[in-house]
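Researcher: Quick test of sequence recovery. C-alpha cells follow.
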C-alpha cells in the first residue's frame, strides 16, 4: 500500500483577495493551484504530501505552518535562501476574478529535476501536477516531467489539471507542453475556459474530441464551472450536473474539484460518484473568499449532497 494517497508538485503562493469590489481591501490567505488541491484532499482525509520550494521568508514559514496544520507532509519542501515566496492579488470585476502576480524569480520557479524527491513520488498512489507547475519556468517544467516519468515507472497514477495562465507562457508553448503532458496523464482535468483558448472550440463534445485526437488516453473530466463536468472514460461521456450556490469567489474551485476527486478515488468511489462529490465540494468552496479557507470538510459536503455521498 502506498504511503501517500496524493503527492502534489507546483508553486504555492500567498494570496491577497479583494473582499469588496472596487475597494483597496485585501484579505491575506494562501493559494497556488496544486497546494490548494492538496489541502482540499487532506481536508477530505487523504494522506497527502507537497513538493515545492519556498523562500526563507515569513511567507514561506506561513505556508509551511499551513501545510502542517492541514496534515500535509512537508518533508519534500525545500527552503531557498536566495529567492522569495511568490504572491498574487485577486480582484473581482464584472468578468469574474483577475489575478495579478508577483512571482517572477520565485523560489518555486527555481525547482530542478535533481532536487525532486523521487522517493516520495514513488510512494504515492496519485501524483498531481498542473499547467501552472509547468509554466513558471523551464526547469520547473522539466521537474514536472521527471516526476511524471517517475510516477508512471512506479505504478502511480498521474493527474494533470490544465490550469492555463496565459500571463505565464505563450499559448503555442502552453498547447505543445500540455499536449505532451496530457498524453502521459492517467487523469486529465481540463476546464472549458482553458480549452477554448487552446483549441478554439466552445462546444464540450468538440473539445473532448480534440483532446482525444491529441492523444489523451486516460480519464478526461471537462470542468464547466456551475454547469458541472463531463466525465469521459474513453468509451462513454456523461454530464455530471453542477450544484447551485450563492458564489462570492470562485478562486480555487477547480483545485478543490481536483483534490477532492482524487481523495474520493483513493477512498474507493467510482468515477461518477467521485465527480458528483467533487462538484459539490467545488460549489461549496465558492461561498467564501480565498482559495483555501472555504475548502469544505466531509461533513459539509455530506450535508450539501442530496441523499448523501452514496446517492445517485
Ligand atoms: O486556481 C487558483 C489559483 O489560480 C490561485 O491560487 C493562484 O496558483 C495560482 C496561480 O498561479 O494562478
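Model:
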Amino acid at each position: 500500500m502506498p504511503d501517500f494517497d496524493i503527492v502534489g508538485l507546483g508553486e504555492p503562493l500567498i494570496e491577497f483577495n479583494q473582499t469588496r469590489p472596487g475597494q483597496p481591501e485585501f484579505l491575506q490567505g494562501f493559494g497556488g493551484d496544486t497546494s490548494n488541491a492538496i489541502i482540499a484532499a487532506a481536508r477530505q482525509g487523504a494522506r497527502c504530501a507537497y513538493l515545492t520550494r519556498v523562500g526563507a521568508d515569513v511567507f514561506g514559514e506561513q505556508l509551511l505552518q499551513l501545510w502542517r496544520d492541514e496534515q500535509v507532509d512537508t518533508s519534500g519542501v525545500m527552503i531557498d535562501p536566495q529567492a522569495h515566496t511568490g504572491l498574487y492579488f485577486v480582484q473581482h470585476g464584472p468578468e469574474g476574478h483577475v489575478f495579478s502576480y508577483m512571482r517572477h524569480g520565485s523560489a518555486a520557479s527555481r525547482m530542478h529535476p535533481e532536487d525532486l524527491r523521487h522517493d516520495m513520488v514513488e510512494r504515492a498512489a496519485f501524483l498531481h501536477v498542473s499547467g501552472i507547475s509547468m509554466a513558471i519556468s523551464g526547469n520547473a517544467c522539466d521537474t514536472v516531467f521527471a516526476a511524471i516519468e517517475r510516477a508512471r515507472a512506479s505504478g502511480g497514477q498521474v493527474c494533470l489539471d490544465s490550469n492555463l495562465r496565459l500571463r505565464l507562457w505563450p499559448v503555442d508553448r502552453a498547447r505543445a507542453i500540455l499536449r505532451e503532458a496530457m498524453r502521459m496523464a492517467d487523469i486529465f482535468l481540463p476546464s472549458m475556459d482553458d480549452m477554448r483558448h487552446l483549441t478554439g472550440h466552445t462546444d464540450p463534445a468538440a473539445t473532448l474530441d480534440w483532446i482525444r485526437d491529441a492523444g489523451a488516453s486516460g480519464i478526461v473530466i471537462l470542468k464547466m464551472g456551475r454547469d458541472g463536468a463531463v466525465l469521459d472514460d474513453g468509451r462513454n461521456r456523461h454530464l455530471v450536473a453542477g450544484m447551485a450556490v450563492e458564489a462570492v469567489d470562485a478562486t480555487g474551485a477547480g483545485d478543490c474539484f481536483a483534490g477532492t476527486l482524487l481523495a474520493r478515488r483513493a477512498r474507493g468511489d467510482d468515477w461518477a460518484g467521485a465527480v458528483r462529490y467533487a462538484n459539490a465540494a467545488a460549489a461549496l468552496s465558492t461561498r467564501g473568499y480565498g482559495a483555501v479557507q472555504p475548502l469544505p470538510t466531509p461533513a459539509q459536503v455530506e450535508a450539501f449532497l442530496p441523499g448523501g455521498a452514496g446517492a445517485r
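Residues 13, 31-33, 36, 88, 99, 132, 165, 251-252, 254-255, 291 surround 2-keto-3-deoxygluconate (CB under 6 Å).
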